[in-house]
């Protein structure tokens, strides 16, 4: 009885500790939101209260109406969607091939891809800039999509290969015995089983492109070509027109689409559709 009471008390304190950590992590987000609905241009006040003296939505109206926020949003959606489709279209088939087939040079290619992914992106920036200038791809969304797809394809292959390795081979063998061809096997058996990994990997690719700043501001030289990350920097580039409430409102708007996507796919992040697929 005493052990049960001690265990209950211990779990209660542990839950309170984790809840406190979560609440502490929400403080910066709450402060950014309160700052976005306040008037003025400063981020700090002399008082102890974090609440704004006057609530207003003028910062959100200014971002959506006076700034090219919707154009930046369109550019980010275009780059994120294009990169996700191109990277996933190539990495799904490649990761399945690396997982299931044993061909000469397989291990060497995987190690080479891992080595390429280990180099910082900034090391290749000058070479890519020269190449883009030669091919007239500066200020081009297509050029950025190719760069993003190449870098994220390596991550996607390694991420999904591990998931394909966890799918029992007996499922494929049973399907072949039932007369399923290779195309039917992949479309109706493998891809549905790998749906959690594919969705999570695709969203991680999308989030990377959504938040990417270095390449987007280097290869996009016009304001109308900026993504949301470049646009946020543009809002703070001028010391004389800097407004932290305006910047906070833009940051909140940038985060909303990603939060919606995350809440929609969170069930796939913990699901394992292959569990119990083959009985021992």
From TrEMBL:
Entry's transmembrane regions: 12-34, 72-98, 110-132, 138-158, 185-210, 244-265
Recorded GO MF terms: ABC-type maltose transporter activity
Record's subcellular location: Cell membrane
Membrane topology per record: Multi-pass membrane protein
SUPFAM superfamilies: MetI-like (SSF161098)
PROSITE patterns named among the record's database cross-references: ABC_TM1
GO biological process: maltodextrin transmembrane transport
Protein origin, superkingdom: Bacteria
Keywords, ordered alphabetically: Cell membrane, Membrane, Sugar transport, Transmembrane, Transmembrane helix, Transport
Domain ABC transmembrane type-1 positions: 73-265
Family per record: Belongs to the binding-protein-dependent transport system permease family. MalFG subfamily.
Protein name: ABC transporter permease subunit
Species whose genome carries this gene: Eisenbergiella massiliensis
């Amino acid at each position: 009885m005493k052990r049960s009471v001690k265990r209950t008390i211990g779990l209660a304190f542990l839950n309170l500790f984790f809840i406190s950590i979560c609440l502490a992590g929400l403080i910066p987000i709450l402060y950014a939101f309160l700052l976005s609905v306040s008037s003025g241009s400063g981020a700090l006040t002399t008082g102890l209260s974090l609440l704004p003296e006057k609530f207003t939505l003028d910062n959100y109206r200014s971002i959506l109406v006076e700034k090219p926020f919707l154009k930046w949003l369109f550019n980010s959606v275009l780059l994120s969607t294009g990169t996700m489709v191109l990277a996933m279209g190539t990495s799904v088939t490649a990761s399945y091939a690396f997982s299931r087939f044993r061909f000469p040079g397989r291990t060497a290619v995987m190690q080479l891809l891992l080595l390429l992914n280990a180099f910082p992106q900034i090391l290749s920036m000058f070479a890519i800039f020269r190449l883009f200038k030669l091919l007239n791809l500066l200020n081009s969304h297509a050029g950025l999509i190719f760069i993003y797809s190449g870098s994220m394809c390596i991550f996607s292959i390694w991420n999904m290969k591990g998931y394909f390795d966890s799918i029992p081979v007996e499922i494929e063998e049973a399907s072949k015995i039932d007369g399923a061809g290779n195309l039917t096997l992949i479309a109706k058996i493998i891809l549905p089983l790998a749906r959690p990994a594919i969705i999570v990997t695709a969203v991680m690719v999308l989030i990377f492109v959504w938040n990417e700043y270095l390449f987007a501001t280097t290869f996009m030289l016009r304001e109308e070509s900026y993504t949301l990350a470049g646009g946020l920097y543009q809002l703070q580039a001028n010391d004389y027109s800097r407004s932290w409430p305006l910047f906070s409102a833009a940051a909140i708007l940038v985060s909303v689409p990603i939060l919606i996507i995350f809440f929609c796919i969170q069930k796939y992040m913990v699901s394992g559709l292959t569990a119990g697929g083959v009985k021992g």
